[in-house]
Design a protein that fits this description.
By secondary structure, the protein is of the alpha/beta class. It folds into three domains: about 210 residues, FAD/NAD(P)-binding domain (3-Layer(bba) Sandwich); about 110 residues, FAD/NAD(P)-binding domain (3-Layer(bba) Sandwich); about 110 residues, 2-Layer Sandwich (Enolase-like, domain 1), CATH 3.30.390.30. It is built from 13 helices and 22 strands. Strands 1, 2, 3, 4, 5, 6 and 17 form a seven-stranded mixed sheet that branches. The chain has a five-stranded parallel sheet with strand order 8-15-9-10-11. A five-stranded antiparallel sheet has the order 18-19-22-21-20, with helices on both faces. Strand 10, helix 7 and strand 11 form a beta-alpha-beta unit. Helix 1 packs parallel to helix 8, helix 3 packs antiparallel against helix 4 and helix 3 packs parallel to helix 6. It is globular and about 65 Å long. The chain starts with a strand and ends in a 14-residue tail after the last helix. Pfam families: Pyr_redox_2 (PF07992), Pyr_redox_dim (PF02852).
């Protein structure tokens, strides 16, 4: 039996490693278990997000965005001549960024005194964790508190089984090392749209098959409508109501069979990315007598502060209810570490930003206009287009808008939705305002620097009451 810990965290993704660091900072003897190893047997920290998700995809998106900007630099008077992309170098740059960040997490563990336990973690009864190393050796550790942060894995579908080099999940999609002529994507969600954008910018013919009839069903309808229009202009061919029924591999081609409202169809591509969502990664995580229960969808059952039904055991991140977002997992990790240390901590699940990193970016926080109307909440709405922003014009980045929704009776901001070049950065302004219970008037009275794209947030707040300065306001119906 090894030393007893105050806290053992199972999983070193954005939820787990943040929880471990916070717990250690609060003076708790902390260990973090991670099963992922590299080719040399070293621990791979950071989870899906850092290694095969958020960070590497943003690296590729940024590289291809720069390529696209360079191709169209003549609008600024910059003459570049023919521009080419070295895809292998682009992928190598992505790998270097991931490697630096992984080493960074290891350094943070060392700096904060977090003990790394390499192996597969399994929760046993009585607040014990079994860690099974790569060689099969198992060690059992005791802890006063345990945080399960096992993350999620891609959902695979029987009609499109993964095939090395041809039919890929999100990890395989990040390692395509030459530009395919034709790319198929199953799923028009975050991963599908981002990966489709990467290759469309490099000249690939991209076809996205989405089984649902509605595009971006969880987004505000104005955002979904604007995004669909822009993606069509970018030559992303998004087919709605298109359900994959099978795949055939012929040499280096994939024939995708699908059905839509017109009947059975086929699509021939060089690469196929399967991006239909993710599911909790809980296989092998729980002993039968651990006391932790799963709900009907396989998520770990927790309360509003991430407590499981086993005393002293918490669960956070993608393996519990709520959006599968890295920042949600991290904040849950901090909340739980604070609770364990005896501090008051609560997380506001109503103010979690969502972002899709296409260009322009899609971002929102709070409720959509459709949700609020369905709940019977009377609202007032303000919209301001980036086409009316001087700074956006100067940046040649005028697609999109900021939409703000406020309560008709109280003026409190209930939701903000954006399509725009740096919407991922602007959405934090809305989240901060909502976290402090701001009204639209609060933002109307705030001084925004000029010229900035942030002024679009200010103008949208003014537009809520028909007072936007730099556009004509809609006349309110009497």
């Amino acid at each position: 039996m090894s030393d007893k810990f105050d806290v053992i965290v199972v999983g070193a993704g954005p939820g787990g490693y943040v929880a471990a660091i916070r717990a250690a900072q609060l003076g708790l003897k902390t260990a973090c278990v991670e099963k992922w190893v590299d080719a040399k047997g070293g621990a791979v920290l950071g989870g899906t997000c850092l290694n095969v998700g958020c960070i590497p995809s943003k690296a590729l998106l940024e590289s291809t965005h720069q390529f696209h900007k360079t191709q169209h630099a003549d609008v600024h008077g910059i003459q570049t001549g023919e521009v080419s992309m070295d895809v292998k170098q682009m992928v190598a740059r992505k790998d270097k960024i991931v490697g630096n960040l992984t080493m960074g997490v290891a350094g943070l563990f060392k700096a904060n005194g977090v003990t790394l336990l390499q192996g597969m973690g399994k929760l046993l009864a009585n607040k014990q964790v079994q860690v099974t190393a790569a060689d099969g050796a198992a060690t059992v550790y005791d802890a006063e508190n345990i945080i399960l942060a096992s993350g999620s894995v891609p959902v695979n579908i029987p009609p499109a089984p993964l095939t090395d080099g041809l039919i890929l999940d999100n990890e395989g999609a990040l390692n395509i090392n030459e530009t395919p002529k034709r790319l198929g994507v199953i799923g028009a969600g975050v991963i599908g749209l981002e990966m489709g954008s990467v290759w469309a910018r490099l000249g690939t013919e991209v076809t996205v098959l989405e089984a649902m009839d509605d595009f971006l069903a969880l987004a505000d309808k104005d955002v979904a409508k604007e995004a669909a229009k822009i993606f069509k202009k970018q030559k992303l061919d998004i087919k709605l109501g298109a359900r994959c029924t099978g795949t055939e591999i012929n040499g280096q081609e994939v024939t995708v069979k699908y059905t839509d409202s017109e009947g059975d169809k086929e699509l021939v591509v060089d690469k196929l990315i399967v991006a239909v969502g993710r599911r909790p990664s809980t296989q092998g995580l729980l002993a039968d007598d651990s006391g932790v229960k799963l709900d009907e969808r396989g998520f770990i059952f927790v309360d509003g502060q991430c407590r499981t039904e086993a005393p002293g055991v918490y669960a956070i991140g993608d393996s519990v209810r709520g959006p599968m977002l890295a920042h949600k997992a991290s904040e849950e990790g901090i909340m739980v570490a604070d609770i364990i240390a005896g501090h008051h901590a609560q997380m506001n699940y109503d103010v979690i930003p969502n972002i899709i990193y296409t260009h322009p970016e899609l971002a929102w926080v709070g409720k959509t206009e459709q949700e609020l109307k369905a709940e019977g909440v009377a609202v007032k709405v303000g919209k301001f287009p980036f086409a009316a922003s001087g700074r956006a014009m100067a940046a040649d980045d005028t697609d999109g808008f900021v939409k703000m929704i406020a309560d008709e009776a109280t003026d409190r901001i209930l939701g903000v939705h954006m399509v725009g070049g740096i919407a991922s950065e602007l959405i934090a302004q809305a989240a901060i305002a909502m976290e402090f219970g701001s009204t639209a008037e609060d933002l109307q009275l705030t001084v925004f620097a000029h010229p900035t794209v942030s002024e679009a947030v200010h103008e949208a707040a003014l537009a809520v009451d028909g007072h936007a300065i730099h556009m004509a306001n809609r006349k309110k119906r009497k």
